[in-house]
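Example record for the data management plan.
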Amino acid sequence: MKKFALAMSGFLLFAVIPNSESTFAAPKQVNKLGAACTTLGKTALISHQKIICKKVGNKKIWSNFVEVTPIIPVPLTIQVSYGTDLHGSISGDPHQTVSPGASTNQVTAVPDPSYVFVAWSDGFGLPTRSDSPTQDFVAVATFKQVFYTFTYTSDSNGTIQGSATQIIASGFKGSLVTATGNSGFAFEKWSDGLTDATRSDEATGDKTLEAIYKPVIPIPAIVAHKIGSLLWSDEFKDSESNAINSKSWTARNCGAATSNGGSTCMTGEVQYYAPSAVKLDGTDNLIITATHTATPPPDAGPCGSWGGGCPFVSGRLDTQGKVSFQYGYIEAKIKMPIGGGNWPAFWMLGNNITSVGWPLSGEIDIVEAGGDKPNLVHGSLNYRGGGGNPKYVTGIKVAPSDISAGYHTYGVLWLENSISFYFDGELYETQTPSTIEGPNWSFNAPFFVILNNAIAPANGYYGGNWDGWQTSTMSVDYVRAWQVDGQGKVTVV
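Corresponding structural encoding:
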């Protein structure tokens, strides 16, 4: 089309004169690969394929669409932080910067006193850790408080002053407690070996502690002598089984071997010796029970009369091979048995009886009594005379009352070349090498202790004849050994 301008009568006219050439519409855009497109970056979908308008050379054409994955930059460093709740701290560097793939320095979560580690916030269960992180992270340790129960108890001879049961936070100390003995008893030690009566304990676990007491043992008053330290004692404290202390004593049967308590039942006694006849009575006494019976117990052993009959069962115990004594003041508190035929004794034999025999070993009869003579106390030495025959020397004390009616003390004050006999603390006899016959003073060597109640043969000096009793008991409150005038030794095997 061409335009012309004409001026007519003052007007400017435009006229359109058709072009002689043919006219055509703009071509329609085709969305297919390789076809021309008009808008760069525009996308279209053909046959489920995504295409994009791209500039190729100087043309815009449809091209394959390529998905481009964005490139994420790799961090140059990683930040790691370790922390705790209010009840702990971190040992090590809590804030660390590491390269990707590198390990952190080791750290440990440390609980405050009375607390324990539980876990980290990411679930890790050990307090010490080192990590190889791939990204920044924070781990927090948590803790919990721990409590323990302390229980303080006493045996029957004392009490606990203070809080006997305490709930104590771990690592902290409880309140003070004191073990106090009842009348006649003093604190000895706690069951864990501590010897201080007053204590306060740090809680490291649940505990039960028992206070143990010992009798307050009065020092004997012996005229003209100085009693020193207590060397050994058996107070015959009750046990669950009421059995004697097997570390100190052996209960015997009758038997001639010198290893059997120095030999037993050798003087015509008419009893079996049964260990079952020897026991504690439940009130801190040793009891030797003699029984008139035709049926001995299973543990009775052989009859003591060596051919005759034994219508009685009784008991004997000794410290042979377990506890030996040399010098000192040795004492027992005894209530003698009631009735004719009883022949109780507290006595000693030399340790060397197994090698030299009796009587060269020596025998110290601290006390012998007879059930038919309940007011006579006998103290004797048996030894070998100058001609080689057995000899003895005896002192007799007339008691002011029946010794089977109550407890009395029987003791020897034993020094080198001197043995003195005491009844209730009163001296009634002293023997020395010059008061015995012959050169064989066998009493400067170790001896062991014996307690027994024999039943005498008919018409025997000690005991006389059985007078019809069915049971009779010899009761022993204690046996004790003290140092005296600086002398005295007890050996426990």
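Summary line stored alongside the record: Confidence is low (pLDDT under 50) at residues 1-24.
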